[in-house]
Design a protein that fits this description.
It is built from 4 helices and no strands. It has 142 residues and is mainly alpha-helical. It has 2 domains: 62 residues, no CATH class; 55 residues. α3 runs antiparallel to α4. The longest helix has 32 residues. It is extended. The N and C termini lie far apart (68 Å). This is Integral membrane protein. It comes from Streptomyces chiangmaiensis. Keywords: Membrane, Transmembrane, Transmembrane helix.
Length: 142
């Protein structure tokens, strides 16, 4: 076992201990357990099958590299932003969400799309430079 692997395992166990310790301070443990159960059910019944289906369609459609990466990043950004996106409007406490999260989420998605488009364009240019000249341009041996 490598040292890095051992350190990552120790760090993971320490963080799990912090989570359990913080969970002991929760007054409504039933609500937390219901929320966790609903999150697992939502993941297993909707999110995971949807991601697998999209992945299958992308592979069959020959979509590779940057587009698949962009979809993964978009999914992760959306998962992080989902609680804020599902509760629109101004919160009662202005320090809770002082930023415009829906706008910033959309800007992040636009940035991901722009970087993906640039990467795809660069790949296309690189491929076109590597291709041999077409046979129509070569003189025939007649």
């Amino acid at each position: 076992m490598s040292v890095a692997r051992l350190l990552m395992g120790v760090a993971g166990l320490a963080l799990m201990g912090v989570g359990v310790f913080r969970l002991l301070d929760v007054s409504d443990l039933t609500g937390v357990l219901i929320w966790l159960g609903a999150a697992v059910a939502l993941h297993d019944a909707l999110i995971a099958p949807l991601v697998l289906l999209i992945g299958l369609l992308l592979v069959r459609g020959r979509v590779r590299g940057p587009v698949r990466g962009a979809l993964l990043v978009t999914g992760a950004l959306t998962a992080v932003a989902l609680p804020v996106l599902l509760r629109p409007g101004r919160p009662a406490n202005s320090s809770v969400l002082p930023l415009d999260y829906p706008r910033n989420w959309l800007l992040a998605l636009v940035a991901v799309a722009a970087v993906t488009a640039l990467l795809q364009a660069a790949r296309g240019i690189r491929r076109s430079r590597r291709r041999p000249p077409s046979q129509a341009r070569q003189p025939s041996g007649r």
